[in-house]
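cron nightly-structures :: item 1 of 1
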Amino acid sequence: MRHLVTFQYIEAITRAGSIRKAAEDMNITASALNRRIQRFEEEFGSEIFERLPRGVRLNPAGELLIRHIRAQESDLKRVQSQVADLSGVRRGHVSIACSQALVPYFLPKQIAKYRKAHPGVTFSVSVRDREAAEAELGTFKSDIALVFEPIFMADFQVQTMVPQTISTIMRPDHPLATQKVVRLRDCLDYACVLPESQYGVRFLIERAAAESSRTISPIAESDSFDFMRHYSLHEDAIAFQIPIGLEERDDLVFRELSTDDVPSGNLLLGQMRGRTLPVASARFMQQLEIELQKYS
């Protein structure tokens, strides 16, 4: 516990990349901060920063230490939330890394529902692709990940898995809008807007197209599903999304993409393997597990 303030200084220097800048951010003198770090390095038995002409950066020993610091911070938050539970006051902070599809509708509803019962809990929601979400779990920047079709899963402990059939998005006057289920080969005969290659929707569509010896030539690519969805309003183009990220509207229609062509993907809810979550995060994940079953 006596090193907590020093750990905060180390985190600040790591973020700023400079002792002088970190000192300004924390309202102390650069010389005082430098002495604090030097004393810690002497006690620790190793330097943790590489001194550069225009700042500092963590050396390999510092990288190991910063991971330890973040693990300790996570454990401390967990204990603090457990202590708060003992007094009957639900407090804490829940950090979530998620696919874009969860941002417009699903997560706002779930967070508001949880905070109605536990107004002392705060949240942070970060939109991350599959690889970045798992990386954030590993560095304790996020407690929970809710992502579509993750690829990097070595340290990802799945709590629940919900299949998601890909939906097509188009204007009501599009020639394919009259069909209840759309074939991929028909979609590829029209202008398409696709997510970038790191997204699960793109991965599944590209794999299916390759298996059918078709090529995909999107008229636009983006890392924003909002952009792709709204682009369909301005050109007779087809966009793609998973159903949990869609709600009915008058100016667009959503049609299921045939699973004979493109198999369903999985929406995975999980955490870092072997980690004990803070109480608020664990309780919120339990709520998500229940709600996600409605989409299976």
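cron nightly-structures :: done
The chain has three domains: 4-64, 90-163+266-295, 166-263.
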